[in-house]
Amino acid sequence: MTRFDADTPTDRRKLFADAVTAHRTRGSAFLTIEAESADELSFGESEEAADDDEAEEKPDPWLQFAEKTFNLDVTDEEHDRLNALVDDYPEFRVDALDSPDAAEGTNVRITARSDANRLSDFADRVFTEIYERDESYRAWVVQV
């Protein structure tokens, strides 16, 4: 792979498919994709408001893929959307849910037996539909 980020749907899906192919070719342990933060300053918002101690800071969303399994963390609301998304992929199934008492969400593992293009389509939809990033969000393949 020679590029590691993209910010249009077509470029992201090509990037994700290339990352899946590289992961499979290299036999790496997993690949990780991260999306830009939605918590960046909005137009007209003051830096003082962004630095407010009471402001809730969410981690940047991420998605891992290893062999034939996606791994991601979701809130309860995101989990409901994820279940609806998985329904669109009959060859995928939710295999494991882990909700530790100390965590505010659920770690989900999804078995996904498919080609790189179908996997990349799912990955992009996770960021737009589950994590609610807009169509021009930037994603990075941070580990292959």
Task: Give the secondary structure arrangement, pairings included.
Blueprint: E1 5-6, H1 9-26, E2 31-35, H2 47-50, E3 62-66, E4 69-74, H3 76-87, E5 92-98, E6 106-112, H4 116-130, E7 139-143
Antiparallel strand pairs: 1-7, 2-3, 2-7, 3-4, 4-6, 5-6
Polypeptide structure, described:
This protein is an alpha+beta fold and 144 residues long. It is built from 4 helices and 7 strands, in the order βαβαββαββαβ. The protein has a 7-stranded antiparallel beta sheet with strand order 1-7-2-3-4-6-5, covered by helices on one side. α1 (9-26) crosses α4 (116-130). It is globular. Residues 40-55 have low confidence and may be disordered.
Summarize the structure.
The protein has 144 residues and is α+β, with helices and mostly antiparallel strands. The protein is built from four helices and seven strands; from the N terminus they run E-H-E-H-E-E-H-E-E-H-E.
Unreliable parts: 40-55
Average residue-wise pLDDT: 87
The proportion of strand residues reads 25-35%
Biggest sheet character:
7 strands, antiparallel
